[in-house]
Amino acid sequence: MATDPLQKTTSPAAATDAPADLVRFDRVVKRFGDHVVLDRLDFSVQRGEHVTLIGPSGSGKTTILRLLMTLERVSDGVIWVNGEPLSHMRGADGNLKPANEKHLREVRRKIGMVFQQFNLFPNMKVLQNITEAPVNVLGLGREEAEERARELLDLVGLSDKVDAHPSQLSGGQQQRVAIARALAMRPEILLLDEVTSALDPELVAGVLDLLREIAHTTDITMLVVTHEMNFARDISDQVLMFDSGRIIESGSPEKIFSDPEQDRTREFLSAVL
Amino acid sequence: MNYDWDWGAVRDSLPLLWDGFLTTLLATVLGTLVAAVLGLLVAMAGRVPTRLVTVPVRAVTEFVRSTPLLVQLVGAYAFFNTVKPLTIGIAVLGIHYAAYLSEVYRAGIDAVPKGQWEACRALSLSPRRTWQAVVLPQAVRNVLPALGNYAISMFKETPFLAVITVTEMVAQAREYGADHFTYAETFTLAGLIFLAASYPTSLLMRKLEQRLGH
């Protein structure tokens, strides 16, 4: 890819877009062996936007979040965050080359993720789960980190569980702690990967209500993979419909859910709604 | 059977056996410490993504596991003839068991779910902090029962140290038995002391295991 040596932070590709793009996928390909999961994917997310990715299982939605979290590497193409390459870094000659671990460690700091399986640390109490990264990554003092953690536990409605171990909590409570843990890093971008799929049905609503509140009261940019279509309708600014590693349709939730253009989308929605 | 059991020999040999027992205990405790630390380092070295490290480490552990402890003891004793026999014994026991424990640790580390590593990455924890705060505490908890079993097994193999002149408990029993021709008494006594030490330890390990269970 050609680059302008005078402008360190802006590539010609990024410069052609509005600077409001916080995340941009530029012809991103992800292959696992011969299997193409994402096929030359282009899309962008603006700062503060809430984007929901919907589509059948195996259509590549979760892979997008995992690429953004740098849990996977792109096979081809470039991911940009805030005008900087995420999947790549600039070599001495100004050209892009695949990112090394050090680059990834720096760029992924702005991004937080909540997982389907919570992934709380079972060897730590709830409070430590939340303060671990702020203390050891952001360098916050222990007191400040604990204060922040207590505020977040208050937000997620678990003030009384500060000293509990994750194994003593219900799935819904664990997921709330995981949300608090991700927020404690003050991410610019929050990735939610099917966060209610592993929960018992009666616990789903509480977690979704919490996420609605976060979506409506903060300016965090969100990328959400979910099968909860009502939730998607409530929080999304943009909905992307995936099928076989491609976006087959995108638009406002009103448009996608009420008047989709593609038969495939209609078919999918009638199956899940 | 009309063996004339000699209670006097039991009484007289007890202080000697006790001395030997302390040596046995020292060798076991220090040997276990060496094995626990070295085994962990070997297991971690096995995960370094370069063959420059993994191949030699693999070769050494295979060698240690494929040769008898007795041969290793005598070999080390002959080779390092200026080092104190007990020191050699502790080192050889430690290295021998480290080779086995490294596999136990490897399994324990592999048993830490992939999601834990991913959560660490998502929180930008450094590799060092990932190991120290998340992976190792969980891995060690996974392997603690096996660690205890190996410690007890090492305890029962300390009599091999007698061949390199360490006077642990069984060596003391044989010496006293030979002098007074009371093998039955002294060896029975040594066996009972082993039992008295091993059994409560294994019960203790089981308790610990239950308490640490998630």
TrEMBL record, chain A:
Main location: membrane
Sequence ranges assigned to domain ABC transporter in this UniProt record: 23-269
Annotated localization: Cell membrane
Signal peptide: none
Keyword terms: Amino-acid transport, ATP-binding, Cell membrane, Membrane, Nucleotide-binding, Transport
Listed SMART domains: AAA (SM00382)
Domain of life the protein comes from: Bacteria
Topology in the lipid bilayer: Peripheral membrane protein
PANTHER family reported in the protein's UniProt record: AMINO ACID IMPORT ATP-BINDING PROTEIN (PTHR43166), GLUTAMATE_ASPARTATE IMPORT ATP-BINDING PROTEIN GLTL (PTHR43166:SF9)
Name this polypeptide is given: L-cystine ABC transporter ATP-binding protein YecC
Organism of derivation: Streptomyces brasiliensis
UniProtKB/TrEMBL annotation, chain B:
GO molecular function, one term: transmembrane transporter activity
Subcellular location: Cell membrane
Annotated Gene3D superfamilies: MetI-like
Keyword Plastid carried by entry: no
SUPFAM superfamilies the UniProt entry points to: MetI-like (SSF161098)
Main location: membrane
Stretches assigned to the ABC transmembrane type-1 domain: 21-205
Alphabetized UniProt keyword annotations: Amino-acid transport, Cell membrane, Membrane, Transmembrane, Transmembrane helix, Transport
Keyword Transmembrane attributed: yes
Ranges that cross the membrane: 20-43
An annotated GO BP: amino acid transport
Membrane-related topology note: Multi-pass membrane protein
GO CC terms of this entry: ATP-binding cassette (ABC) transporter complex
Family: Belongs to the binding-protein-dependent transport system permease family.
Protein name per its UniProtKB record: Ectoine/hydroxyectoine ABC transporter permease subunit EhuD
Organism, scientific name: Streptomyces brasiliensis
